[in-house]
């Protein structure tokens, strides 16, 4: 059973220990890496040894904050996980570290890490906001590197300050990190204004599959394995695609069908009127009100025959289609 | 000859006058409208009469800040322009108000408005930041409406806080506006997460015209009049398209060709290596280092024959292609 602690409590633990291993989640994103590197550099500023580990190699575009990273060797005596909601997300590091994590720092509502100590705050839009508070409480001054890493976490987990989850506090931390030397223009350009040729080709293919149903209340895109394979696009690069259909004016239910072995992974995004998780639960899936997912077995036609009537029912129940 | 004034000077003028007409630029965007409405409501809070006028109707998506706007009738005794860089941008209001503007508030480097008094600060990324300072100096408290309008201006002129022009101060104002009740989540969703079906179709068409030149150092898209006409997309809705080719990894020169009567409007976007304005100057155009434009007469083939060799030369001069 994990013991819940607050920021000063987490700082006390970090001060008391040395040789700290910091774990980032698999398929790393800007928040897990930004949080991990900021924490590592802050601990180093306190004279400690620390290193970051991740199941997957660090994607090229995070170099802007990590630089060339050469982890130092030591036997960990304190293990911290950052932005990791469940043990599955440890990836191949699960075998070594599951059940041995001393401090879990996260902002996901449903965290099932079962670390010795947990600092979990779902009110912040990014784990980096918690790490900012830790670094501040530790009395470490924000150098350019730490500021850049924190900024990366904030920006990437909020769609560049776009989501409703952003608070006044998030903007204030961003301001402080810019003053401390975060190269925000460059970070934002790399993360939000650069797209690989393969992903641009993918956008094109996906837009060509776009179809509307129920008078434009539902939009759907289809991503085949043939397409992703041919373009060499990997799974996590497609995460943004799920949001595309709902972005279209008038769309209440956005669907993205991604082909997997023996069936389809369905991403559902809805506006206020429809509960995504309830819709996905029909097919054994789940999620949140505005975003859910499920897996449906069978070929494309079979999936359509199951999925579209369920969407139609949901639209009818919401009063958006006539009874 | 316009007299340059500062924030307290502008506030003195605004305090001294009543019946204030506030002009927004044609094809209005979030900054001109956010600035105009925030200023109007602040003046009303001081017991004055004020109204906003614009050459074009207010686009639907700005209702989130303006609400149903019914301007009040009075004969203007003081005229303010906000975010208007030159008299052309007054549109059909030019005839009535050119040369009669008492106060020009703007953040564009090259402002040629020639108002009686000018408050121009190119160091802020949005005119709304100047209006924020004015409202503060006037001692008017930020209600939900004013806060929303200022936030709209900041967010839309910075690509939702993405551009390098954003400063720590911009984020701090955003924080204050959120605390004052700006519905930032809703504003951002409407401005950055919603796209009309026509524009989505346009994206599809444009991506299908995407072509690479010089080993991927240059990317080009082509927008025909047939396509825009058929989809009913209007000119200013296409502004974002110009940025697309440069967003692609490895692209140093992004070109967007938009068909006009008798020729093509060419938008050029470059990375650090190439000067857009110099490239455009070859064809009688101009602009900034990273973004320029020019008009080339002739059919598509004729434009290609002129434009692509000029791009090739620029890439060669920058050392990106062998001599």
* Main beta sheet of chain A: 6 strands, parallel
Helix content of chain A: 25-40%
Number of strands of chain A: 12
If you compute it from the alpha carbons, what radius of gyration of chain A comes out, rounded to the nearest whole angstrom? 21 Å
State the shape of chain A: elongated
Q: From the structure provided, what is the oligomeric state, counting identical versus distinct chains?
A: homodimer
How are the secondary structure elements laid out?
The structure is a homodimer of 323-residue chains.
Chain A: E1 3-4, H1 7-16, E2 20-23, H2 30-45, E3 50-53, H3 63-66, E4 78-82, H4 94-97, E5 103-106, E6 117-120, H5 127-138, H6 144-157, H7 168-179, H8 184-192, H9 197-209, E7 211-213, E8 218-223, H10 225-231, E9 253-260, E10 263-270, H11 276-281, E11 286-287, E12 291-297, H12 300-317
Parallel strand pairs in A: 1-6, 2-3, 2-4, 4-5, 5-6, 8-9
Antiparallel strand pairs in A: 7-8, 9-10, 10-12, 11-12
Structure description:
2 copies of one chain form a homodimer. Chain A has 323 residues and is α/β, with parallel strands linked by helices. Helices cover 39% and strands 18% of the residues of chain A. The first copy, chain A, contains 12 helices and 12 strands. In chain A, helix 2 packs parallel to helix 5, helix 2 (30-45) packs antiparallel against helix 6 (144-157) and helix 6 (144-157) runs parallel beside helix 8 (184-192). Chain A is elongated. The model of chain A has no long low-confidence stretch (mean pLDDT 94).
């Amino acid at each position: 059973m994990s013991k819940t602690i607050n920021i000063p409590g987490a700082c006390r633990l970090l001060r008391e220990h040395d040789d700290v291993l910091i774990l980032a989640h698999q398929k790393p994103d800007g928040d897990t890496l930004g949080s991990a590197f900021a924490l590592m550099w802050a601990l180093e500023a306190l004279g400690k040894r620390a290193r970051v580990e991740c199941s997957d190699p660090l994607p090229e575009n995070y170099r802007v904050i990590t630089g060339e990273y050469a982890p130092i060797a030591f036997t960990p005596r304190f293990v911290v996980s950052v932005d990791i909601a469940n043990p599955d997300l440890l990836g191949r590091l699960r075998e070594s570290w599951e059940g041995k994590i001393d401090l879990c720092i996260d902002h996901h509502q449903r965290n099932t890490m079962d670390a010795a100590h947990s600092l979990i705050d779902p009110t912040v839009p990014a784990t980096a906001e918690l790490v900012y508070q830790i670094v501040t409480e530790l009395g470490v001054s924000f150098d350019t590197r730490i500021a850049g890493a924190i900024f990366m976490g904030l920006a990437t987990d909020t769609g560049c300050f776009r989501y409703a989850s952003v608070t006044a506090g998030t903007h204030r931390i961003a301001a402080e990190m810019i003053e401390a030397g975060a190269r925000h223009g460059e970070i934002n350009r790399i993360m939000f204004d650069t797209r690989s040729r393969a992903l641009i080709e993918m956008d094109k293919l996906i837009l060509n599959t776009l179809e509307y149903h129920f008078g434009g209340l539902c939009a759907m895109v289809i991503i085949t394995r043939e397409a992703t394979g041919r373009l060499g696009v990997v799974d996590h690069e497609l995460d943004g695609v799920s949001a595309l259909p709902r972005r279209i004016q008038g769309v209440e239910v956005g669907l993205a069908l991604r082909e997997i072995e023996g069936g389809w992974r369905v991403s559902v995004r809805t506006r206020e009127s429809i509960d995504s998780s309830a819709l996905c639960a029909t097919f054994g899936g789940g999620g949140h009100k505005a975003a859910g997912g499920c897996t449906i077995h069978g070929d494309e036609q079979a999936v359509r025959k199951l999925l579209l009537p369920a969407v139609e029912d949901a639209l009818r129940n919401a009063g958006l289609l006539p009874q």
